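Journal club prep — side note

Before the paper discussion, L.F. wants everyone to see what a predicted structure for a comparable chain looks like in token form. Sequence:
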Amino acid sequence: MQGGFYIKEYTMQRFTERTGLIEKPQQLKLGEIPDGFRNIVHLSMIEALEHVRLYGSMGGYYLSPEGKELFRDFTVIELGKPVAKNMKYEAAERIADSIHLSAFPKLFDYLEYFMERDTSGRCADRIATACVKHAVAYRVRNRHFIAIGNNEQAEAFESAFEITRNSSANGASAHLEQAARALAQQKYADSVRESISAVESTVRFLTGSSGTLGELLSSLKKKKALHPALADSFSKMYGYTSDVDGIRHSLIHEDTASVSEAEALYMIGACSSFISYLLTTEAS
């Protein structure tokens, strides 16, 4: 077809797959705020502004006394700027600038200012929803932001992915990549499954054997390639995910999987750390 595109099954690896440049999940990108989050927050602030506007009989509007105090304090105390001469017109502009132009963490300072003063709770609810929708590394609790991931988890994932690529443990790196994608897509049960599968693939790579993860860990322990205490601790974690009431079976393989974001974050961090340990120990 000239001058256009044609449909063909795509079989080649994508650039990120060929180069190993996989992004860590959004939940582990501390200090990074996606534009989509800012856009939703801006919309919620526009709606909040409507609640402190009073409309006159001639169609104009003015800020209520509460609105004037809110934006006066925000301008002077939070932004460090002089009081606006035309507050009712400049309030919306200054809010927009504070949301779209402010770097982290100052943006969160501004948002907490408004959440703390929002008597209806609507503003805080919208910001909390935006955090979940865009999988940012923070959540709203009691009108304040808290981090749900940490730098150690992020570093563990990046280190494990690099080590598996360099060790030619391609199955493990593929599972880690899928675990990250599932976490970013908020498919937490899938992420846990892929994290565990990455460990299984790593152990099979090291032993050259098949079998369950528990059996393979026992084999490594007998060969003294794995400290017994570490083997036992991870076997217990694997036992939890394999239990009939745990993650690997009843939760992962049902449409109503109820694995939390916190569990998925913990598992991708713990499994990544264990994979790095196994491969670096083997190399040494």
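L.F.'s comment for the group: The chain has two domains: 31-147, 151-283. Keep this in mind when we get to the figures.
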